[in-house]
Amino acid sequence: MGQLLILIFIPCLLFSFEEDRIKTNNNIKKYSNLEKVLNSMEDNIIISHKKLNYISKTIDEFFTNKYTNEIYKDSYIRIETSLEKTSNESLKFNPNIYLRIHLPKIEKKLTFIIHNEDKLSSHEYEDNNEKIKHDYDKERNAYNIGLLYDTIKKNIYLKFRVRLKFSDNPYIYSKLEAKKDFVINKKNNIILKQELKFSNRKKLDMYSSIRYNYLINEKFLLSSYNQYYINSARKDDNLYNSIRLNHKLTKYSHINYVTYINSNNDDSKFQAKEYKTYISYRKYIRNWLYYDLIPSISWSKENDFNSVNSIKVKLGIIIK
Q: How many helices (H) does the chain have, and how many strands (E)?
């Protein structure tokens, strides 16, 4: 009970900080030393973003032989580092990088991507922290390099990826994704998505998901995300169910309250293997700089359903 009270107390404390910042911010006229450093960094971020998109435009025009005065803006780099301390493990450090070079002229919409992010099941959400069992392997932080093609056909959003994964034994895989958004009214919508991933090593992975969103008001959004995963070779079907409440505190900060259940048929008929609840607080210090604070509690079969506490801190920079 004490652990749950802490999870409830933290967002209240963070919200009080936001209120104090809003009240006092108008009285601050002089820049602090930290603000001066951030202003200098922001100038470099803007220059780096322009250079990245200049490279994107040069590559695009070189391969298509089509030259215009169009200014490119969609390429970006995201660098994120995290520190996590779990009650039964030592401190973990995890750096991630995501590079996206947009090439709109080549075959309409083509994107070059390099990343080592562990793509989690519900990666529809910007700052999700779910760890799905079938995503957990030695290759989670291996680098990927590849091409992404996306388009819209009859209101269905389509993506096709071909990537090379740099693990101990590198391999190529392809992924096809189809997504359809059904708008019920101004407050309700449903998103259906089907993903197929194929490689010679892991054969065929299939992900089927449904997401329901309910806009309570301008501050709160309630979402339910459910996914079914199956692998044609391993037969380790996985079922994931979550409920998420997004609370918008200010223009630059929000909190996610998340509870999810993981089930699979490894040694039982889809009995729950993990329960987890966490709070994810994100604060944008600048448009390009943010941090996350994520306390959580989990109960898993691996730990005999004893509670495991963790705290994670993330720091991210977006050159965009």
A: 2, 14
